[in-house]
Specification:
- It is a single chain.
- Helix 2 crosses helix 3.
- The chain is mostly helical and 94 residues long.
- It contains 4 helices and 2 strands; from the N terminus they run H-H-H-E-E-H.
- The relative contact order is 0.11.
- The N and C termini lie far apart (82 Å).
- It is elongated, with a radius of gyration of 21 Å.
Length: 94
Amino acid sequence: MGLRIEVTGEELQPIIERVVAETLRQLGVKARPAQDDAQALDSKAAAKRIGVSERTLRRLTDDGEIRCARIGRLVRYTPADLDAYVQTRITQTS
């Protein structure tokens, strides 16, 4: 007769994370830390982040001034791309 152990996904998650981290360490692979910037934003959130209307954001995207990812009809923006656009628009005063 076999031994049966039951665990929940919540209990299993930290175990999986430790095993993956240890395996990556043994292989010499440096894992990238999770970044908030990895979260893709929809048009409404992206427009709010850079202080423009959704219509202006769409125009900037169509003109190639702001990068986006298109997945079917969905358009998503990374915070890093939005921040990069804002940095290009900052003018230096003499």
